[in-house]
Structures are given as structure tokens and as C-alpha cells.
Specification:
two-stranded antiparallel sheet, binds 2-amino-2-deoxy-6-O-phosphono-alpha-D-glucopyranose, 250 residues
Length: 250
Amino acid sequence: MESVLTSEYRRLSRDPATQQPLAYLRLRQAIRNVIDQRGIEPGQALPSERDLSQALGLSRVTVRKAIGGLVEEGLLTQRHGAGTFVAERIVKPMSRLTSFTEDLRARGLNPRSEFFERGIGEVTPEEAMAMNLSPGAPVVRLHRVRYAGDEPLAIERSVVPASALPDPALVHDSLYEALEQRGCRPRRALQRLRAVLLTAQHARLLHVAVGSAGLAIERRSFLDDGRIVEFTSSWYRGDIYDFVAELQTD
Ligand code: GLP
């Protein structure tokens, strides 16, 4: 029987709209589509490299290249000797400056936010220090619980200089989308992660037990000219998120 994956690959190969001449990119897209459509569920294994290359008439190198890219993105995970699986936890590569909305969409999940605050005010002395702003500068403040469908994943408090985002109502689902529309999408960020035990208030919002493990993350993002465009404190559920960093020798 043909697997969902091989039939999706063949469909993309026939579809002139795909316009993807490179086999490994086509296969990567096919895998992504099948995961999006839940043809292979989180935690389930992909067919082996050998089976895929035989079924599709592709070289092992091509199949490995297609899969490797998705492992790097965190959509797939590999267990030594056991094979390749659709990632169950949300695996977030730390080297890419992406938004919550982009991360979730890339995994076929439905990002949404509940706002507790979406307003404008004066920068506090601590924020002014952290963001290099003059005392009293106007800033937009967002306080959101971030969900995948109905499941809360993180709480985020963001501060953005009004010079980059003059009106908080410009943020609907995604802060980065709103910044992008203003030509102020961050280009670089410094991020600090810390293990925490979630307080009663955070645990309630995240639907987990008080004292569950969490990750506190602070992100300061910069524009090309060095101005800070975001200062965000987040609390992520520790039972769902894996942050992965690629390390290289010099
Ligand atoms: C992540 C980061 C935040 C950033 C957010 C933007 O969650 N930790 O620092 O503000 O992404 O996401 P979005 O554009 O979906 O609002």
C-alpha cells in the first residue's frame, strides 16, 4: 500500500503550481503537508530512509537531506537506532529569530492569544534601562497568554517603544507581523533562559499544577541600527517546550 507520504510526494511532483525542481525540497514539503494534515500524528514514526528512497526512487542522500532540514526546524526528531518521529514536544531551535505565531504555524498548530493588556504608557525606570530609552518615553505594553488551539503554552509580557509601534491596536495575532508592517521587524535578539517553578498565578493561566517546571525567557530584540524594538518576558510550560541550540567550534 502506498503511504500518505509517497502519494503526497507524487502529487507535488505532478503539480505544476509547486514549481519545485529540487527533489529534496519537494520531499520536505510533502512531509510538512502530511504532518499539517495529521496524516502522520505527533509521536508517530516516519517510514525509514531506506523505505522512502525505494518507494520514491530517490537516493538516500536526498531523503536524508529532506529529513535533516526538518529535524533542524524541530518538526521531526531522531532517536538513535529507532528512527525519525514527528516531534511531540514543541522543539524550538534557538538560533532562529522567529515569532510564537510562526513557530506554531510551522508545526501545523493554531496559534492564538488572549490579551490581558494591550495599551500604551510611559516606560518604567527598569524598562528604560533595559531598552536604552529616555525616561518617560512612550511604550506599548502587551500582556498575553499564548495558546495552541485550546492549550495554553506561554505567558508573555512585551514592551515595545511607541516609535516602532505607535498604536497597540495594530497587534492582532502577532507582534512580529505588526512590527514587520511598520518596517520594524527585529533582526537580532539576545535571549536569556532560566528554569523556574511556576507561581500560582502563572500555573492557573497555563492550566498546570502550582510549582510545575517552567522556563522564564527574556528577549531583547534589535533593529539593524541597534535600537531595541522589544523587551519581552515570557514564562513557557516546561512540559511542552524543548529549546535546542546548535553548537559549533570556531
Ligand atoms: C516569541 C518570543 C517573544 C516574541 C514573540 C512574538 O514568543 N519569546 O519575545 O515577542 O515570539 O510572537 P508573535 O509575533 O506571535 O506575537
